């Protein structure tokens, strides 16, 4: 049965000011689109306001007090994030988002290491951010793309993995699918990939917000994620890389801060992590991401995972009666295999119409291809409606979703 810890959950909900604001139609805001971006707790908002109102200054250069405070807070946030994923601080590179982190690897490690005839192995369920960069790299280098297939449930089929890994230089795979929420069994892939001589990059954009992630235990080489999906602000993301790999890589962007010594004809580069952080960094948002991680650590990632599993189980139970009226739920219906994502279609109602009807009730879901067009094409879904859960969602939110779907059934006379 569902064991939602109500007092704790009430306190969490109260930390998110946006959830207390009714919609323009006077409805309670039911936010079920955290896979697109999460809401922000007051502590994260305060962190931004405090930086700009108390110690806004550029970092790594000013000697005055507020510049030193800004530098300290910026580097402390890096340490907080590093500890959260069990990395060293110098292995945590700030980027704008997961997309930029993945592209950074493509343009540096990729162009340096991937050669004609090499194989880049990815999967059929990737977000475009973990597909298009590898298409570009393959085009530039003459490498070949290969795909781990997904079965009809949307689960990776690893039976042919050994053959797929032959000749692989890179395995680029998501930790959690944004469209279906399926969790990739990385432990079944990473060891084999390394044994085959491949480097492993994991797109963790949908994992770090929802699961306890330990990059060292996973033994991945690169791991990319975004701050805005994990209670942090937009515009800040992370590339984790194993130190030896990052040290051997050429820089990505060039300019200030990433240098040690510049002469007219040549430059020597800064040490890690700053070698990869050219120009003025996103100081405020990095600091606020540190505040978001503090918040998540306080809540506890085990609690986050258990809470989302409970919500998903509850949603599956509440939605089951609608299946006889044409509700199709995609992905494995097993909360142990899935993070807090629920993708569905309802009879022949277009997903966008469903999302619009739910919006009238204050329920925010996403409809479309979720930046996984090849997966949608393969599965034969023109679009899906997607509800995604996070720390601040409640059973009442799930009830509002179900009520909204009942309304849609009435409108469409199902
Ligand atoms: N990888 C995965 C698995 C994602 O879900 C997303 C964003 C990205 C990469 C890119 O993240 P960004 O922060 O660099 O944009 N996914 C979604 C989504 O599912 N709905 O909106 C954005």
Walkthrough of the structure:
With 414 residues, the chain is α/β, with parallel strands linked by helices. It folds into two domains: 137 residues, Aspartate Aminotransferase, domain 1 (Alpha-Beta Complex); 253 residues, Type I PLP-dependent aspartate aminotransferase-like (Major domain) (Aspartate Aminotransferase, domain 2), CATH 3.40.640.10. It has a seven-stranded mixed sheet, with helices on both faces. Strands 11-12-15-14 form a four-stranded antiparallel sheet, with helices on one face. The longest helix has 20 residues. Ligand 7TS binds next to helix 4.
Structure summary:
This protein is of the alpha/beta class and 414 residues long.
Brief descriptors of the model:
14 helices, 38% helix, 15 strands, Aspartate Aminotransferase, domain 1, 2 domains, Aspartate Aminotransferase, domain 2, binds ligand 7TS
Write the layout of secondary structure elements.
Blueprint: H1 6-14, E1 30-31, H2 42-54, H3 65-84, E2 92-95, H4 98-113, E3 119-123, H5 132-141, E4 144-148, H6 161-164, E5 168-174, H7 190-195, E6 199-203, H8 215-218, E7 222-226, E8 237-241, H9 243-248, E9 259-262, E10 267-269, H10 283-299, H11 301-319, E11 327-330, E12 341-346, H12 351-360, E13 363-364, E14 366-368, H13 373-379, E15 384-388, H14 395-411
Parallel strand pairs: 1-13, 3-4, 3-5, 5-6, 6-7
Antiparallel strand pairs: 2-8, 7-8, 9-10, 11-12, 12-15, 14-15
Instruction: State the order of secondary-structure elements, H for helix, E for strand.
Output: HEHHEHEHEHEHEHEEHEEHHEEHEEHEH
CATH class of the largest domain: Alpha Beta
How is the biggest beta sheet arranged? 7 strands, mixed
Number of strands: 15
CATH superfamily membership of the largest domain, which one?
Type I PLP-dependent aspartate aminotransferase-like (Major domain)
> How helix-rich are the residues, as a percent range?
25-40%
What would the CATH topology of the largest domain be?
Answer: Aspartate Aminotransferase, domain 2
Low-confidence segments: none
Distance between the termini: 30 Å
Strand order of the largest sheet: 2-8-7-6-5-3-4
- Domain tally: 2
* CATH architecture descriptor name of the largest domain: 3-Layer(aba) Sandwich
How much is the average pLDDT? 97
Q: Which kinds of small molecule does this entry bind, naming each only once?
A: ligand 7TS
Based on CA atoms alone, the radius of gyration comes out at 22 Å
Q: Name the overall outline.
A: globular
Give the count of helical stretches: 14
Beta percentage is 15-25%
What class do helices, strands and sheet pairing give? alpha/beta
């Amino acid at each position: 049965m569902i064991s939602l810890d109500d007092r704790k959950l009430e306190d969490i909900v109260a930390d998110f000011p946006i959830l207390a604001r009714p919609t323009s139609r006077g409805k309670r805001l039911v936010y079920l689109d955290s896979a697109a971006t999460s809401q922000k707790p007051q502590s994260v908002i305060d962190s931004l306001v405090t930086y700009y109102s108390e110690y806004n200054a550029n970092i790594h250069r000013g000697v005055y007090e507020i510049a030193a405070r800004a530098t300290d807070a910026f580097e402390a946030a890096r340490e907080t994030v590093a500890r959260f994923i069990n990395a060293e601080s110098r292995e945590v590179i700030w980027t704008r988002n997961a997309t930029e982190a993945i592209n950074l690897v493509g343009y540096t490690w990729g162009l340096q290491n991937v050669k004609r005839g090499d194989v880049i192995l990815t999967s059929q369920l990737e977000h475009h951010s973990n597909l298009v960069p590898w298409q570009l790299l393959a085009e530039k280098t003459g490498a070949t793309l290969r795909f781990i297939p997904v079965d009809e449930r949307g689960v990776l089929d690893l039976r042919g993995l050994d053959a797929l890994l032959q000749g692989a230089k890179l395995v680029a795979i998501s930790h959690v699918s944004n469209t279906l929420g399926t969790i990739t069994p990385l432990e079944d892939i990473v060891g084999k990939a390394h044994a085959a001589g491949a480097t492993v990059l994991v797109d963790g954009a949908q994992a770090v917000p929802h699961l306890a992630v330990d990059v060292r235990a996973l033994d991945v080489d690169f791991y990319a994620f975004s701050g805005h999906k994990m209670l942090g602000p937009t515009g800040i993301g992370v590339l984790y890389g194993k130190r030896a790999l990052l040290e051997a890589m050429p820089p990505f962007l060039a300019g200030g801060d990433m240098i040690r010594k510049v002469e007219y004809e040549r430059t020597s580069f800064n040490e890690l992590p700053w070698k990869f952080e050219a120009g003025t960094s996103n100081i405020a948002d990095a600091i606020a991401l540190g505040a978001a991680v503090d918040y998540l650590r306080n809540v506890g990632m085990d609690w986050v995972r258990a809470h989302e599993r409970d919500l998903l189980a509850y949603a599956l139970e509440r939605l089951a009666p609608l299946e006889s009226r044409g509700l199709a739920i995609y992905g494995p219906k097993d909360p142990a295999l899935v993070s807090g994502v629920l993708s569905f279609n309802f009879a022949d109602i277009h997903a966008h119409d469903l999302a619009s009807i739910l919006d009238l009730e204050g329920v925010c879901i996403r409809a479309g291809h979720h930046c996984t067009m090849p997966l949608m094409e393969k599965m034969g879904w023109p679009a899906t409606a997607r509800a995604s859960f996070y720390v601040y969602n409640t059973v009442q939110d799930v009830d509002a979703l179900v009520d909204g779907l009942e309304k849609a059934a009435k409108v469409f006379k199902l």
